[in-house]
Amino acid sequence: MRTPPSAGRNPFAAVVLSLLATGLGHVYCGRVATGLVLFLASLLFAPFAVAAALMPPSTAVLVALMAATIAVLGVYVFAVIDAYRLARHSPVPYELKDYNRGTVYALFVLVGVTYPIGIVHYVRANYFEGFLIPTASESPNILPGDHVLANKVVMRGRIPARGEVVIFHHPTERDQNWIKRVIALPGDTVQVRANEVFVNGKKLERDRVSAASLDAIKARVEGEVYYETNSGRRYRVMFGPEAAKDFKEQKVPPGKCFAASGPNMTR
User: Fold this and answer.
1) What is the pLDDT of residues 146-168, one digit of tens each?
2) pLDDT for 196-228, tens place per residue?
3) What integer pLDDT is reported at residue 190 of this predicted model?
4) Are 147 and 70 in a shared domain?
5) Are residues 100 and 138 in the same domain?
6) What pLDDT sits at residue 262?
7) Of these residues, 137, 231, 245, 251, which one is catalytic?
């Protein structure tokens, strides 16, 4: 069905539509095939980024991710500039096409806006989630104000290992996220006595960390720092002026882990 002609294509409208949904400015100017290609290309970055993040870290993956980022930005900028150019040189009068309708434009914008939001929500729920650390619970390894990115894939199908840092929902206050270091696993016995930690009756070894190695964060260190070793993992722990409370020897129940205590974190 033919529609009546219009005065022409407005360059400002073409730019705005391209900003709202990559390629929509081309659809507005009558280049529907080009617009669809640009629109679909803009949607490919999110799944590519997820796939790259799930691969083992390497220079090749980083280069590929940077190249994809530059390519997507290039597509975005090209779409805006080219839509402006097409609108300025559009024929007058311009014969409206069947797809030059507000409902079609609204559909493009709806997909262009909801798709990245949906991808972000899906990735956050299943793969990666960022958190802000407000407390010194894991100092000096993770300091208040640090941002961390949790990889949710690595724990699928296995339990945490001793010495690993994990993020989890508080057992009773499910709206709170906590960050702790795993000390003992199901079936282990664990005890804390006079600031010493014992796992299966063996005291965890500690070595004092030199003050020189803490220069970069010395203003934020409030206590003595040691290297602690647990099942081959070596990490830093900090002790303040007050000794930790003793914890009587107990056996970790099936399906549970014993983690270092500390305040909660927010996301």
Assistant:
1) 888 888 888 888 889 999 999 98
2) 899 999 999 999 988 888 888 878 777 788 899
3) 94
4) no
5) no
6) 44
7) 137
Q: Is residue 267 part of a domain?
A: no
Determine which of 15-24, 31-40, 67-76, 209-218 has the lowest per-residue pLDDT on average: 209-218
**Catalytic annotation, pick one of 180, 202, 248, 251:** 180
266 domain residue, yes or no = no
- My answer on whether 195 and 221 are in the same domain is yes
Share the mean pLDDT of the chain: 86
Tell me, yes or no, if 137 is annotated catalytic. Answer: yes
Domain CATH number, residue 227: 2.10.109
User: Does residue 174 sit in the same domain as residue 115?
Assistant: no
Whether residue 58 lies in the annotated active site = no
Query: What are the DSSP calls for the chain, one per residue?
Result: ----EES---HHHHHHHHHHSTTHHHHHTT-HHHHHHHHHHHHSHHHHHHHHHHSPP-HHHHHHHHHHHHHHHHHHHHHHHHHHHHHHT--SSEE--TT-SHHHHHHHHHHHHHHHHHHHHHHHHHTEEEEE--SSTTTTTS-TT-EEEEESSTTTTSPPPTT-EEEEE-SS-TT-EEEEEEEE-TT-EEEEETTEEEETTEEPEEEEPPGGGGGGGGGG--SEEEEEEETTEEEEEEE-SSPPPPEEEEEPPTT--EE-----BB-
The domain tally of the chain equals 2
> In which domain, by residue range, is 73 found?
5-126
